[in-house]
Design a protein that fits this description.
By secondary structure, the chain is an all-alpha fold. About 75% of the residues lie in helices and about 0% in strands.
Length: about 80
């Protein structure tokens, strides 16, 4: 799947989200979207790297400490 396909999926879902809101205004969309995308990304990368945080951090282009912080935020590790 190309990045453009992922972007299109996000766009379609955001349009649906905004449509569902009707006349209500969205709140904290940026944080909502990042959380919605970040958690499954972290889950998938951790699974594919056999939960090797160093390797996962490398795949993601993150510092290992940053990855660990994000894993804790999403309750993917204790």
């Amino acid at each position: 799947m190309k990045a453009t396909h992922i972007a299109e999926c996000v766009r379609i879902n955001l349009e649906g989200y905004l449509s569902d809101l009707g006349s209500s205004e969205p709140d904290r969309m940026y944080a909502m979207l990042l959380s919605a995308v970040e958690k499954p990304l972290l889950e998938m990368v951790m699974q594919r790297t056999d939960h090797n945080q160093s390797k996962a951090a490398q795949w993601l282009g993150l510092n290992r400490n940053t990855l660990r912080k994000k894993l804790l935020e999403h309750k993917l590790i204790e």
